[in-house]
Amino acid sequence: MLIQLGCLERSMANHLPSTIFQHWIHSREEDTEDIQVYRPIGYQFPPSRGRNGLEFRPNGEFILYGLGPTDRPQKIVGSWTAQSNNKIKIDVSVWGDKGRMMEVISCDEKVLKLRYLDSTS
To answer: What distance in Å separates the CA atoms of residue 11 and residue 47, rounded to the nearest whole number?
Structure first.
């Protein structure tokens, strides 16, 4: 069973560009009406209040980085599942039982662009 799980993890990861597997920080200044832009951790952002982030891991783990009630960083662990070549279902407790769908518009080592879609049923 461990071998099958390992194959499944590699199969899911094969649906996404390898550059997506890193820690991304929201670059809200670059957002458009329906697309959110993320930059890799270490990117030199203009000064601002705290920023949210996210991280995809090849094993199906998803981490949502946000600000807690006292503006301290907060990390929420969930999971991702590839739905097609560019759509991903994200499950984290703060988004409820249905999770959320996102579409990868583009991704390279410098920028990740996502469109959040309707919640899944």
So the answer is: 39
